Amino acid sequence: MVEGGISKPDKTQFTECWKTTWETPYIMRLALSAGFGGLLFGYDTGVISGALLYIREDFREVDRKTWLQETIVSMAVAGAIVGAGLGGWMNDKFGRRMSILVADVLFFVGAVVMALAPAPWMIILGRIVIGFGVGMASMTAPLYISEASPARIRGALVSTNGLLITGGQFLSYCINLAFTHVTGTWRWMLGVSGVPAAIQFVLMLSLPESPRWLYRKGKVDEAKSILERIYPAEAVEGELNALKISVEDEMANEHAIGNSLGQKLKGAFKNVVVRRGLYAGVTVQVAQQFSGINTVMYYSPNIVQFAGFASNKTAIALSLITSGLNAVGSIVSMIFVDRYGRRRMMIVSMIGIIACLSALSIIFSQAATHSPKIDQFESTHYALNASCSSFVKANNPTSWNCMSCLKAECGFCANRVNKYTPGACLALTDDLRASCREKRRTWYKDGCPSRFGFLAVAFLGLYIIAYSPGMGTVPWIVNSEIYPLRYRGLGGGLAAVANWVSNLIVSETFLTLTKALGSSCTFLLFAVFCAIGLTCIFWFVPETKGLQFEEVEKLLSAGYRPKAFRKISEETEDEKGKAKVDADADVDEGTSS
After folding, report:
1. In whole angstroms, how large is the CA radius of gyration of the chain?
2. Rounded-to-5 percentages of helix, strand, coil across the chain
3. N-term to C-term CA, the chain
4. Cα separation of 169 and 180, whole Å?
5. In this structure, what are the phi and psi dihedrals at residue 212, rounded to the nearest 5 degrees?
């Protein structure tokens, strides 16, 4: 059975997985039923990107307050931080199955609350409840699958949970697109997540508890009966003995590092190997989030609108590209991570991310510079009291373009014949928006018409291609391999908290940054963060590919240095040693003479 940390599957495991689950369908039933948690995780983190566009249309308060939009998006992340902590406690206290059932109830209740929300505060409440479910599912689903799977195919089955997360995100974009012309739009988008939660709840009622948890609680006969349904009859006793040894070792490790969280943390930070492991593990998790990935996953339609695509439906449709590429990238990672190594894939990934973010910064800068000019006559004579007050009061209105108009919190009504030619800068009201559209013109309030728009979408896609196979999956693999066995759960937990907190910071500030700095400078800022992250990965993160846990421990104990600098350092040490020998020889000669 699993001993904390889940290894990455190889091709043999996938072949064996197919063969084993074909012979014993019950195993796949366990894995897919629990894997619904990953699907819900992905759906509920991805669906808000499209729903937010329509929430803004229904609630003027949300449309005008950037911080309120960020709060609606990020409260699911804040809830997930709490939910992950509660999930860890519930897993040990009440079992993996019960934790999944509770998460399903939270998913369902949160979906209903959001779908019926009469005001923004209720959407936020629903997002927090959903976040509790996301946090619990992120902890429990892979744990249940790993503990209820045969060891030889465990990695492949656990990987299905990761695929279902990215698949859930892709599904959320498809659902968003499907409901763009339905009355209630965002209510359906957010409410639909209650359906898979209800399905998983029913499925889990018919499934057993994790055999490992049962054994730890002294319910040996129950654990054995479950193993009999998973393994061939001749293998059950051997698996039961392996389970006994594993649980005893785990309990001994827990006793050695202390029972309270304070004792565990104290022991971890006193241990130089664990401390260096945390440098590496936390570094890759924080770098993952500050690469800006969740600005793309949570705000992808907004970014597409920044690039000049005003239609909500078009923005959601184009955002499908990023979500689909993310799902494909996770499969690519499975194929190549054991061939090319963790460290190399992260470094190459970060270089690609920096290049794409820098390109996006240039594209958005050029789009702002070349945005359509303002037609002064139209802007002042479009309709009575229709003009943007800031434009009317401007000292030099002839210098204004579409971007100047949007920064003044006004709307741009594009030229009917050619949207790239001068248009009207009008007050930002629902009536004027409707009037502009009635005249078959396009209304812009988040981005301007731009010939660079498709370039922005293309580089968003390239960004995902660079991110997903490397920084998307490898940080989690590194954290399953970098810590000594007895501290693996604690180290992985601390790194996961760092990941969620970084996620919260990024998702809570992205729109504010774009408003204060502009899209161009915001993407450039993330490129700088990535350059810092790349430097930290280069210095602090060793290669763990193909190493036993004991070998990783020795590597960290000696103190990791990048290979190129390690050679220089070793040569310097050799020179120092040689100089010392020569000095000792000189002293001996002087003494003898």
Report:
1. 28
2. 80, 0, 20
3. 70
4. 17
5. -65, -45
Token pair, residue 294, equals 């969740």
Find, among 121, 29, 116, 45, the residue nearest to 79 by Cα: 45
Q: Are the CB atoms for 341 and 545 separated by under 8 Å?
A: yes
DSSP class of 209: P
Question: For 400-459, what is each residue's pLDDT tens digit?
Answer: 999 999 999 999 999 988 999 999 999 999 899 999 999 999 999 989 998 888 899 899
Domain-wise residue ranges, the chain: 12-207, 208-257, 371-444, 561-592
Residue from 74, 61, 64 nearest 510 by CA: 74
Distance in angstroms (rounded) separating the CA atoms of residues 460 and 454: 10
CA 193 vs CA 199, 225, 242: distances in Å? 10, 34, 39
Q: Are 110 and 135 in contact (CB under 8 A)?
A: no
What b-and-e string marks burial along 282-306, b requiring 16 or more CB atoms within 10 Å of the CB? bbbbbbbbbbbbbbbbbbbbbbbbb
What would the two tokens of residue 511 be?
Answer: 């729109």
The span from the CA of 84 to the CA of 90, in Å, is 10
State the fold for domain 12-207.
Answer: Growth Hormone; Chain: A; (1.20.1250)
Would you say the pTM of this structure is higher than 0.90?
A: no
In angstroms, the CA 189 to CA 111 distance is 9
| Cross-strand pairs, 373 | 401
Cβ atoms within 10 Å, residue 497: 15
**Residue 189 burial (CB < 10 Å; 0-12/13-18/19+)?**
buried
Q: What is the dihedral of CA 497, 502, 504, 509, to 10 degrees?
A: 170
Q: Which two tokens stand for residue 380?
A: 């002042």
| Tens-place pLDDT, residues 459-497 | 998 999 899 888 988 888 888 778 887 777 788 888 888
**From the CB of residue 573, how many other CB atoms can be counted at a distance below 10 Å?**
10
**Helices marked H in 409-487:** 430-438, 453-467, 474-481
From CA 413, how far away is CA 380, in angstroms rounded? 13
Whether 95 and 209 have beta carbons less than 8 Å apart is answered as: yes
